[in-house]
Design a protein that fits this description.
By secondary structure, the protein is an alpha+beta fold. 14% of the residues lie in helices and 34% in strands. Helix 4 (378-391) packs across helix 5 (405-414) and helix 6 runs parallel beside helix 7 (477-491).
Length: 877
């Protein structure tokens, strides 16, 4: 499902029916369909298209976002840039042999995985050059209109040609940007758009994806229009204050600017919205004098009738409908979503939303969607947020870059607050080819563009100027931090700035003083010291824990040493293991409980993600942790022969939830803390250990209760109570015997919740469950199907690794399969997959425009098969 606005169309139709004159207000339509794709440059390019060669033609793009007079005054050089004679940009080039793709598209996730590729970036081929071409007919009736291409994100160094002419470009792969196509457009004729991308190798610390991986839009407007991200809304009690930037491509003009406020109804759990009742009082319009070929700004204040506040529990939204008029004729019309709410960060009381303290129960997440790669998908994002909300999460950090616009839309509608982040590096780089190479020329443009794009979202509560910036340690660092904070305050004085700081000393130097709210990464022991040194500056955990685990993997004996628990390319799921810089979750919990003025935390991470497979990044230190002598011998030989160790890990172990959305044990540890009134108890490990008969097998319990009693086959193994700074209950001396392990949790002396695990027999059956039973036939909606392996009594088989084959009947297709195993190097498009510890995932999509029953079948040798049916329905249902 796309976020294509139907509300604007409804508004215009209403005006037409009322007999109001309407000129040609702006249209914004999806341009995701019917692209052609090809990897690599043509032979006639001959290196002409490198950024350094065409930089002077790109730098004038986005100059409205800079105050640097040299950049602002920069004009495109006369003549043509190199590259305009290259075959791929020509209108008569025959691209019919190129592959047809729909956007958003990530070429890297298509694979294949290769062992020799870096695990840091997921062992996937995301780097290199690729081209996208599309034909576009502009009717003759559009003559005189302004035509724009809006790109939500393209990875990276994007350059755009229209009808063989260079139109512009943007290098930052996470930025959203606009190119004016008007000077190059042909009306009443076919137009050709060609976009070249160039992903440099060694430019990312995680999997960045490749391609036009976010949505693309065609915008048509009249000569007089509301500017790009041109409406800025702040609220004060029951008043909405609007600043409306108006652009004029024609002669000087006098206009009237009006605005009305409507309730906004959220549909489909946040996927769509609809205008509701008008709630604003009659307000005098603003008169505006527009200079020729220039811009001007109008201000309006609109009183509403008892607006409902936006909060995480009740994400009430409104829409401002802004209209430009000339003598009663509507020239342009725009709807802008927003919310009424107040935010405050207090040095003594944490984060306050609408005057009430709200602990930040947050997670950090990278932008990929697991088996779908970096290509944005609204339903997949919604599913992630639904799972996080079940855990008690209420906050998202967009680590370490501008998010997809859809994430903020969903956060607005579902009730999450957001720490909106911009960069991973400034002037000092972390990788050879990362953002530091273009920081000087582009950081102000990228930052102001993001601020203007995102500042109306009520979900956004913090502007993060960077993550673990190496410039924390340079003389320039504090100067740059002040500049970045000042830019944020200029564009939006209503929100504070922060940065995720990993250096202890940055909490005490001028870098930290440049921030409104101080964020510490992995420093729970510093909270008290830092507060004592700066008692008036709010503080929070901007990145915490980094506990690592593999879903359903348990190693014995367990250890309380955070450096232990790594074996066979997996990590123990007792949730006690963390890298050297990080901490188990309980250490962070204790720090926040000791110092309640800490506003909360953002855990690294909510979901496993592609790349950064710590601790198995190929470092020799991990060699001796492996339990299999043959593995140790092979690794020692690799180290001797090549000086490095090749490991199969493709994805992270940090997630509270695995790559496929399956909950790890840690999910319940955070749920117990973040949802204290939710009645829950969770046992670990599973209880199918035939080889451990008579051996000590520790049992841990996560519960929102304060005590619990453990039973094995009906016999009590004792009742335990949580002490101060204890966040789990432990029975470390349980001797394994098969049967039923059960826990009864209590709160305030009363029974609270129970959980049990049973010894499973041999794998015998497959079971399938869907997240929903209807698929919209729009080519975007997805259905996520969980496949479980069970024994003959339908008990979950937690150690099953059977090979499962999938097939589809009806108007649907398998988009991807996976199992959550960080070492699985099969491409996601495979239609068969081994279960990993009893689970597998299938992602289904309906064929665009095709409706009817879609039947998914799963089969495995020696197991009873299973099937599930979902129904494809029209996209507008």
């Amino acid at each position: 499902m796309n976020l294509i606005s139907t509300r604007r169309i409804f508004s215009i139709l209403t005006l037409l029916c009322a007999g109001v004159a309407v000129a040609a207000p702006s249209e914004r339509v999806s341009l995701d369909a019917d692209w052609r794709f090809q990897k690599g440059d043509p032979s006639d390019a001959k290196g002409q298209l490198a950024y350094a060669k065409i930089k002077d033609w790109m730098l004038p793009c986005g100059r409205e976002f800079t105050t640097n007079q040299d950049l602002r005054a920069k004009e495109r050089p006369s003549g043509s840039p190199v590259g305009e004679d290259i075959s791929y940009v020509k209108t008569d080039f025959d691209d019919t042999a190129w592959r047809r793709v729909e956007l958003p598209h990530d070429w890297g996730v298509e694979g294949p995985f290769k062992q020799e590729y870096s695990g840091e970036t997921a062992k996937l081929p995301w780097w290199g050059v690729a081209w996208y071409r599309r034909h576009l007919n502009l009717p003759a009736s559009d003559q005189g209109r302004q035509i724009f291409l809006d790109v939500d994100g393209a990875m990276s160094y994007a350059t755009v040609w229209v009808n063989g002419q260079f139109a512009g470009g943007w290098p930052y792969g996470y930025a959203s940007w606009r190119i004016d196509l008007t000077p190059f457009a042909k009306f009443g004729a076919d137009n050709v758009i060609a976009i070249r991308l160039d992903n440099p190798p060694d430019s990312s610390r995680w999997y960045p994806g490749g391609g036009i991986y976010r949505n693309v839009w065609l915008v048509k407007s009249g000569p007089v229009r509301i500017g790009h991200w041109g409406t800025y809304i702040t609220t004060d009690h029951d008043t909405a204050n609007l600043k409306v930037s108006v652009d004029n491509a024609g002669p000087a003009d006098d206009l009237t600017v009006r605005a009305e406020i409507f309730e906004l109804t959220t549909l489909d759990g946040g996927l769509r919205t609809r205008l509701g009742h008008k709630v604003s009082s009659a307000t005098a319009p603003a008169a505006l004098s527009l200079p020729a070929a220039g811009s001007a700004e109008a201000s309006l204040s609109i009183v509403t009738h008892h607006p409902h506040l936006w909060s995480v529990e009740h994400p009430n939204l409104y829409a401002a409908v802004t209209t430009l008029e000339r003598h009663g004729e509507i020239l342009d019309r725009q709807e802008t979503d927003f919310g009424f709410r107040t935010i405050e960060f207090s040095a003594t009381n944490g984060f306050l939303l609408n005057g009430e303290r709200v602990p930040l129960n947050g997670v950090c997440d990278h932008h990929d969607l697991g088996p779908l790669g970096a290509a944005i998908n609204l339903r997949a994002l919604q599913r992630q947020l639904e799972i996080l909300r079940e855990m008690g999460c209420n906050a998202i950090r967009t680590s370490h870059n501008p998010p997809a616009p859809e994430l903020l839309d969903l956060a607005d509608r579902m009730g999450f607050v957001v720490m909106d982040e911009i960069f991973d590096t400034w002037e000092a780089g972390k990788k050879k080819n990362d953002y530091h190479l273009i920081f000087a020329d582009w950081h102000e443009k990228d930052w102001r563009a993001q601020l203007r794009r995102d500042r109306n979202h009520p979900c956004v509560i913090l502007w993060s100027i960077g993550n673990e910036i190496p410039d924390q340690n340079t003389a320039r660092g504090p100067v740059l931090a002040r500049e970045m904070s000042d830019i944020a305050h200029q564009e939006d004085p209503t929100r504070p700035t922060t940065s995720a700081c990993n250096e202890t000393k940055s909490g005490y130097n001028d870098f930290g003083r440049a921030l409104d709210v101080f964020g510490y990464n992995y420093k729970p022991f510093e909270y008290g010291k830092r507060h004592a040194a700066f008692p008036n500056q709010p503080i929070f955990g901007s990145e915490t824990a980094s506990c690592i685990s593999s879903r359903g993997e348990y190693f014995f004996p367990i250890s309380n040493n955070k450096a232990d628990g790594e074996a066979d390319f997996q990590v123990n799921s007792y949730d006690l293991t963390a890298p050297p810089w990080a901490t188990p979750p309980s250490w962070e919990f204790k720090g926040q409980d000791e110092f309640p003025y800490v506003a909360g935390e953002f855990v690294w991470t909510g979901f496993d993600y592609l790349g950064e497979p710590t601790p198995y990044g190929g470092d020799a230190h991990s060699m001796l942790t492996f339990t299999d002598p043959a593995v140790r011998e092979r690794m020692a030989a690799e180290l001797k022969d090549t000086g490095r160790i090749l490991v199969p890990s493709r994805s992270s172990y940090f997630g509270i939830i695995d790559l496929d959305g399956f909950k790890k044990d840690r999910f319940y540890l955070y749920q117990a803390r973040w949802r204290p009134e939710h009645k829950m108890a969770h046992l670990l490990p599973h209880w199918s250990w035939p080889e451990r008969m008579g051996q000590v097998t520790p049992v841990h319990v996560y519960t929102s209760g304060d005590e619990a009693e453990l039973f094995l086959n009906g016999k009590s193994l004792g009742r335990k109570h949580k002490g101060q700074y204890e966040y789990r209950l432990r029975w470390d001396d349980v001797v394994y015997q098969p049967g039923v392990l059960k826990v009864v949790a209590y709160k305030n002396g009363k029974a609270w919740a129970t959980d049990k695990v049973e010894t499973a027999g041999p794998a015998a059956r497959l079971d399938m469950q869907t997240d929903h039973r209807r698929l919209h036939a729009d080519g975007h909606d997805l259905c996520f199907v969980t496949v479980r392996v069970t024994d003959s009594e339908k008990r979950f088989a937690p150690r099953a690794h059977d090979r499962i084959r999938f097939s589809v009947e009806g108007p649907g297709e398998i988009v991807a399969t996976d199992n959550g195993d960080p070492t699985n190097l099969e491409i996601f498009s495979n239609h068969e997959r081994n279960a990993f510890n009893g689970l597998c995932l299938v992602i289904l999509r309906a064929q665009p425009g095709a409706t009817g029953a879609i039947k998914l079948r799963a089969e495995a040798d020696g197991l009873a098969p299973s099937s599930v049916t979902v129904r494809s329905v029209p996209a507008n249902k």
